[in-house]
Structures are given as structure tokens and as C-alpha cells.
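INTERNAL AUDIT FORM
Audit reference: QA-55
Scope: verify that the stored structure record matches its stored sequence.
Auditor: D.O.
Record contents follow.
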Amino acid sequence: MPKSDLFAPRIAVILPCYNEAATIAQVIADFRLHLPAANIFVFDNNSSDDTGRIAAAAGAQVLTVPMPGKGNVVRRMFADIEADVYVMTDGDATYSIADAPRMIDRLLSERLDMVVGIRTSGRPKDSEAYRFGHRFGNRMLTRCVAVLFGRTFSDMLSGYRVFSRRYVKSFPAHSTGFEIETELTVHALELRMPVAEMVTAYGARPEGSQSKLRTYRDGIRILTTIVRLFKAEKPLIFFSLGSVATTLLAIVLAVPLLETYAETGLVPRQPTALLCVALVLLGGILFACGLVLDTVTRGRTEVKTIAYLRIPGIGALRSPVP
């Protein structure tokens, strides 16, 4: 075996699928063409069609995930598959498989932990694949993450990603559905991982294939996930905002009382006065909660960072062992 082969990374293609019988064979064939050395795994999420049978016939290893939701599938994929480089995309044949080798090369050459495919619909007929409503929602949610966490990706909700083993094995997945992409993004931002983006073509679904994304329902779930992650990762800011809001409300309600007291020496609206006191106390409690939880979060982040650093990085794969 040539010396260079001793350090060739193991590549795993992981495909979460639900009712993708119309496209999964094409996706597997494209990966066989562009990544012939990769192991291809199809995770069938209780499909009611022949997705699993077709994928197995096309040469992929098929595993079944009974719990519904893409987040549950990603959790199983990351836990069960052993590799050095992971390529994750959807089984709907909308992403350009031909770009996978370039994404992997960049991950390895720059020693990154994640490369995200930025979707672009170059042809007019493909513009419906990435509808205006989805693009607008993606930009809005991406901007929210940028405001909350300081930086983000251009296409935060892209399902086309290449990961290092270090990323995959340090990712504590909590999401159950399509909000998993948000969690994948925040995990990289939280640990300040080396990441990159690459433009990739995004086409329309072939005839007979239907999208599982529900714009409003999944958008609300993603927005809820952002708020939840904001509370978990930035508790001091989150609870300080509540503290400031309650304190300002108490001041607004107290101004008329103070004016009356200055004029008459009396406090005629005692319930309002008690409400003001309660709001100030609540603001103090919220701020104290933020301080305590911020300390806890810092400790948890340190533990996650140590767990992340224990896993060999890309550099270890590309450096000969003496």
C-alpha cells in the first residue's frame, strides 16, 4: 500500500430520508460516481414508500430510525457511524453531489470542522426549489442568530454539510425536527470551531418527489429553538433583558405615584405601589439568575470544549506518525 494511503481519511456519506423513493437511487449513484471510496448510509425515518428497499438495491447500507423527525435521525447517524469525514445531505436530489469532493478537500486542506454548502439556484426553473418565502425566512433566522451569537453563516439552514469526526462526536443533539440545522450552526459558533462555506447549486425536486418542510410550522419551531439556545448559551444577556424590562415597567408605573407623594405626602394607590416593588424584586431575581446560570454555562462550555479537544482533529489524519 502506498504511504499516502495509510493516511487516507475514511469518508461516510450519511443520508437522512423520509419517503424519497423517487430520488434516493439517483443520489446514491451520484455519490458512487464522485466519491467512489466513501461508505454510503441511508437512514430511513419510517418511510411509507420503498425508500429503504431501493436504497439497499442501489448499494447503500440502510438503517431504520423509528423516532420521527430529522433531528432524531441526525442524532442516530452521528452516534452510530464511525468515520473521519462525514458528508450529510438530503436524499431528494436537490443538492449538487459533484461539489462534495471540493468540500471535502477544503475541510482537509484547511483543517476545518465543518463546511456548509450555500444554496444557489442558478437556472430559472430551479428558482421554485428555493422559494422566496424560504429564502426570506432563512435570512431572517440567520440574522437573528448573528445578533444573538455575534456571527453566523450565510445559509444557516442548509442541509448540505461536511463534518470532521471531531465535530460529529462532540455534538450533543437535542432537536427532533428540521430545527437541527440551527443547532448544528450554534454548536460550531459556541465552540468557535474553524468552519467555512462554499457555494453549491440547488435544484428543483424531480417529479414525484415532495418536500417535507412546512414553512410556517417549521419556521416557528426554528425560531423557538433560537430563543431556547439563546437562553441556554447566553443566560446573562437573556435574563438581563427581562430584568431591564421589569425594572423599566416598575419605573413607569411609579412615576405618577412619586408625583402624587411629592404633592400630598400620600400614596393613594397602594396596589400599584406594591406592584412596582414586586416588579423591581422580580428584576433583581432575574438578574441574579442570569449571573448564576452564566457561571454554569461557562463551566458546561469548558467541559464541551475539553470533550471536543480529546477527539483527534484533521491535522492528526494528515500527519505521519513517527
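Auditor finding: record pair retrieved intact. The first strand starts at residue 11 and ends at 17.
Action required: none
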